[in-house]
Amino acid sequence: MKNYNDLAERHRDRIPGEFNRWVRHFGIQEEIAPILYTVATWVKHCSWPAASEEQRALACMDLAVSFFYLDDYQHEDYPELFSEFRRNLTGEQARSTRPIVHAHADLIRRLRESRQSMEKFIELRGQLLDEYLLRNSVMRGTASADFDRYWQCRLVTIYVQQWMELWFLIWDFPLAPEEHSSPLLHSAMQSATVFYFLGNDLYSYKRDAAKGEPNLVCLWRYQHAVSTEEAASAIDRMRREALDRFNKAFTVLTGERSPENLKQCGHLLQHLVNQATTARHDNPERYVKPDQLLNSEVQPP
Prior knowledge:
Blueprint: H1 4-10, H2 17-26, H3 29-32, H4 36-46, H5 53-72, H6 78-90, H7 99-112, H8 119-139, H9 147-157, H10 160-170, H11 177-180, H12 183-203, H13 205-211, H14 216-224, H15 228-253, H16 260-274, H17 276-281, H18 291-294
């Protein structure tokens, strides 16, 4: 079992002090230890480059308890845990005494202090819980999902849209409602999301197989009766096509006629896309280069 104190000391250069204090305050070191490096690495590489220490701490809190902890949670009581997290999202009093539930409630309270609309933020995190319920049921053989259905699941569980919504709450470029609902922003975010989850399913292939978790490479292989290498090549081709669509959408989103705040959204998305491979390579314990799957190294975008 990983020791939180040892990890926090070893990686103190990339862990915000406020996040470390928050983890200790709620006594959730045991829950966070297995994902601490992953959280800190994502925030290091994928945060808004000009983010303050406070913003980076909030990003760590969100990634830790709203995403990676739930993403890895495989115990049989997951429906009850997810229900408690949903109560936090809707502002209901938690019934659980588990520290991780109360840490999550505290995060939501902190984010509400931003005074920005949290409607989309809450909606997306509710969808995340729904998709985790499906994924965990598929892993237990009590539900099924073909390639197309799991594609829809991955649009949510990759956490790109949730990550962007977090920054819309805490960064220095508040979006007007019409900017938030902009088709240009939606198009860029959709293609970035597809690019990201296809890359993740290539890099997570071995880990998913070991856990019995669905993976788009496997689902494509089964659906089309091809080899693993052929399935991986098909997924990688789709990934590159998504990157091409993102680059075109980014050009429009950051064009001369685009409002300044939407341009900033485009640059944050581009930063996330550009850092995808770097963040995975900096975390080899969680992500394995898919070189053997593709018979050649997947080149960074």
